[in-house]
Amino acid sequence: MSVTSQLPALQVVVPLLTAPVLVLLRGASLAWAGATAASFMAFAIAIALTLEVLAGGTQVYEMGAWPAPFGIELRIDALNALVLLITTGASALTLLCGRESLARDIDEDRQPLFYAAWLVALAGLAGIAVTGDAFNVFVFMEISSLATYIIIAAGPDRRALTATFKYLIMGTIGATFYLIGVGLVYMMTGTLNFADMEVRIADVADQRPILVAAGFITVGLALKAAVFPLHVWLPNAYTHAPHVVTAFIAACSTKVAIYVLLRFDFFVFQGNLEGHVVQFAGFLAPLALLGIVVGSAVAVVEGNLKRLLAYSSVAQIGYILLGASFSNAAGLTAGVAHMFNHALAKGALFLAVVALAMRFKDLTLDGLAGAARSMPWTSAALVVAGASLVGIPGTAGFISKWLLLSAAFEQGTLGIVSAIVVVLSSLAAVVYIWRIIERLYFGEPVADAPPLPRQEAPWLLLAGVWLAALANIYFGLVPGLPVGLSEAAADGLLRHLP
Amino acid sequence: MELLGLFNYWVFAVLLMVGFYAVIAKPNMIKKLLGLAIFQAAVFLLYITMDKVEGGTAPIIQAGVDAIYSNPLPQVLILTAIVVGISTTALGLALVVRIHEAYGTIEEDETQQKDLEE
User: Fold this and answer.
1) Under an 8 A CB cutoff, do A173 and B103 touch?
2) Which domains does chain B have, with CATH numbers?
């Protein structure tokens, strides 16, 4: 057995086993170095897995050499690979350049524990993305959620605690709903393996428990993914978490929940349940459209920079689901590609926020007035990432919005409505990104404050921000990798539909 | 008879709703967590119920004994879910302690009031 054949297991094992070592190390710098190294190793494994998937199709790994469906099977196809790239990449980059910022938010002696919790969260998210077993997904989901609650509650403000409590309550309800759904499916099919489940559901005589299960699973995961009316935990959690944590979870945690939603609703249910295509689309399309409208509208009037970007995330989740609710190859490709591109744009934006927060305590738009004069490079990166969020041609955001619009025009009336909503919301994005830029570049600093000297964020942080911003441009000009993976992912999800 | 045969499932549904109600309606954070624990316990019952085979016994294979066995898998699954539930409750309670230190109250409406007053 070579090491390469163990990669799917190592993807989870590396961060999971590094975490307890960090607790024992007891030194802030060492813990940071260890966590960053483990994240980069996970990122390297994700890249290696992606290359293998691109070369040889779906990778299957039998845990403990027990054959599926009796043992737990790790299964990596194009969709999993894309989610793994987003998750591990976000963790590696934010950890690498977030050290100074985290050192401000968290006491020195607690930092090893914090980094350990971060790695456990990463292991959970990566675990969800590699496993092919429905109950395994639940366990990893709870591992990642519990660890995420801890790193959000580490926020500097006491409101981080109440925000986390709210997230804990809603997240647990979501996960429990998912557990009920999996239980009902298991009751009817006797299996927990996704691929096996998908085959056996077709033979179930009484489909009603499966329908109920589909409902529970969809609603539970919608809670985790912050789909519009269930998004109330998200703005507070993003706003009050430590800035670096916001950059990490904004880039990947909701995406992973959406991945499980797609895996279940398309791969497992879509081909087997009568009318499921219509039900799924009928349920999600209105929510996606409402989420886009409400999220963008709130972002336009919001005064706090982090909260503004959080509401923009609610709208962006709407785009991903809108693409999925078209239930065809073009729509799904657009949705999955947007998962990747939104992670790039929002990750870069929140990293720029981390950099701004190094100099400015007050992160309201008024508090940041004139910030571009003292931090020109950070502000410029923020403009680039903002352009990607809006979808200016030449940036990553443009690619997925273009795919989404072309998919929309293939639909009937729903497509026209969707296209109008997407265009309107992009205009709203222009407004709220412009509000940030206008304050940063043309705002007059508060009169009584002494003028800040021109000083940038630490160089490593600034390099990270620019790396993320330039990735937005690179994947806007050379979109081959994300779009190719998205097309393969859509293909894998849709293989049962005409 | 049909009704009685589904007794466990009725208890599951009632417990689930009792817990859910407490989570939504109670402003006290400890009561919310208790509600959450009841909510999760209901799901444990669902899993435990589905593994019972009528006339089934503990799944221990012995030579020469030909018995019907209950399904052991859901019990193993739910053992994991119970651990997850305990961790969630423990973390929630730890958060409540921190909230009490920071706000001096564990009523959700009062913490919101204090945030507004800032």
Assistant:
1) no
2) 2-53+68-117 (1.10.287.3510)
